[in-house]
Design brief:
about 150 residues, alpha+beta, 6 strands, globular
Length: about 150
Amino acid sequence: MRCHQQERNRINSPSTGPRSQRPKTPSQQKPGQSRERHYFLRGHIEIPLVDAPGEVFSWSAWVSLSQESVQKIADHWDDPARASMPPVFGWLCNELPYDQPTTSLATHVHNREPGVVPCCVLDPSIDHPLVREQQTGISLHRLAQINQALMG
């Protein structure tokens, strides 16, 4: 899977992410809730368009990363060589309109040069329609079906 050049992105740490994704303070936590911090990065799941060679459809999605992975990315965020960093493991955190759940699909996040959104490559060993679409591509007709599912 080849990643294309796309738009700008930023890292959302627990303190800068959307309010719903920030960890709760101890006084806000319910009994039994974990105090574990979660780290998220927005990336693109790129799907080739077989009817339009060289073009891709991209899902913009959130991926949960380990603290170590987020720290590595943050340390090299403005480094032009960050695109050559090895990919990091993450879990997809969005529910996309597929018959099978998409949350918690394993991903490998590939950094690109500064100002370009990282690319999320789904684990090819997973038997899931989204994984198959990323590997083989989709037709423009399938893209219209996705649009219909989203727009109603």
